[in-house]
Amino acid sequence: MKKLSGLIILLAVLAAAFYSCKTTPVSNTEPEFITINGPDLIAPNGEKFFIQGINLGNWLNPEGYMFKFQKTSSARLIDEMFREMVGPDFTNQFWKQFKDNYISREDIRYIKSTGVNSIRLPFHYKLFTDEDYMGLYSNQDGFARIDSLVEWCRESDLYIILDMHDAPGGQTGANIDDSYGYPWLMVSKESQDLFVEIWRKIADRYKNEPMILGYDLLNEPIATYFPEDEEMLNKQLEPLYMKAVKAIREVDNNHIVLLGGAQWNGNFKVFTDSKFDDKMMYTCHRYWCDTLQANIQDFVDFRDSVNLPIYMGETGENTDEWIAAWTRLMIKNNIGYHYWPYKKMGSPRCMVTIPTPENWDVIVDFAEGPRDTYEAVQANRPNQELVKRVMMEYIANLKLAKCTINEGYIRAMAMEP
Fold first, then answer.
1. Cα–Cα dist 128/125, whole Å
2. Which of the ends of the chain has fewer CB neighbours closer than 10 A, N or C?
């Protein structure tokens, strides 16, 4: 009887132990997402994360100068010019192949191989609407494109910053935001509502995606071209950011939001409240200046005053010597960086150069020539079959295997080609 009682007790103890193991989850307090600690970013493993990488410019936000155009300077104008030149059907096909080939898994693998730890993805708001954009008239493919990029970056262990480069109404008032020459976003309730809605949709979709570092809400808001309205426009920026962050936090409490200053991401005097969100950092841009401490000190002073991270979301397009000196300056000042851009046609001032197709000048001539009337378009339109061959050669040249690796530029970024 004693033996039976002992056996029953032993079985009860074992059952309790088994039940405890089955019902008590293993504790894992390590965060999945990059977080903020004072002026630093902290990786999930607890180590400091210092942003070093590149922008995927021109892929989802075409800019005229990337095609060697000047007058035809924004996505809307480029698309219109292509349609005048080769018609809507061919233009739609061109844009699909452009998006399929400009950035691929091979590009992401190569970027990672250089030592880059993150990328910034500029995108157009129309990718998340039913407005005409890049060959689609409805059911835009913004989420499909980002989903693919996230998959590639997860494979290569690269973080992503999502950057709304072109906002509803236009936040900058220049060609870079594909706008109508004024930052209408700052004075349009309808545009602001759409801006907030799109960021809420994006945050809801990616709220649990750790490969996304954060959301860069607006690229270079409020250009310097509106001195009479500048004070009024600047006052709208921080409240607009607050509206967007509030909407994001309704669905996503994991990701960092990035706030750019007014006047080309250079004026941070517009900010009055650095505590309205607990996962917030700032992003600055600076090009074409001397590589002196004085030319970065305003960003350092602001960073120190709010005790939050700031990083150089765009810079570059300069000589290898300049890039090397500027990189040293940013590292010295604890300012991470994403150079602009990864790829560009016919220029070594980037990581990878796209070869210029033969007869590309025929397209440039039409883009820059008189097209202000139907008669001018008809008189100046080049041979369509020739132009179609040139455009398809351009698509073929987008593939990484066709491009030139700019080793000096990459080393100047503190990477290895």
1. 6
2. N
Q: Count Cβ atoms within 10 A of the Cβ of residue 23 and give its class: 0-12 exposed, 13-18 middle, 19 or more buried.
A: exposed
CB atoms within 10 A of CB 264: 21
Whether residue 257 contacts residue 280, with contact meaning beta carbons closer than 8 Å, is answered with yes
Cα separation of 192 and 317, whole Å? 32
How many C-beta atoms lie closer than 10 Å to residue 48's C-beta? 10
The Cα 194–Cα 198 span in angstroms is: 6
Could you tell me if 141 and 361 are in contact, meaning their C-beta atoms sit under 8 angstroms apart? Answer: no
Query: 341: cis peptide before it, omega within 30°?
Result: yes
Q: Which residues contact 169 (CB under 8 A, 6 or more apart)?
A: 179, 183, 184, 185, 188, 190, 191, 192, 195
325, 301 in Cβ contact below 8 A?
A: no
8 Å CB contact between 217 and 199: yes
3-state secondary structure of 1: coil
- Cα(140)–Cα(60) distance, integer angstroms: 12
Q: What is the mean pLDDT of residues 224-251?
A: 98
Is 339 strand, coil or helix? strand
Tens of pLDDT along 186-195? 999 999 999 9
Tokens matching residue 120: 């910034």
| Residues 327 and 337 sit within 8 Å (Cβ to Cβ) | yes
91-132 pLDDT, tens digit each: 999 999 999 999 999 999 999 999 999 999 999 999 999 999
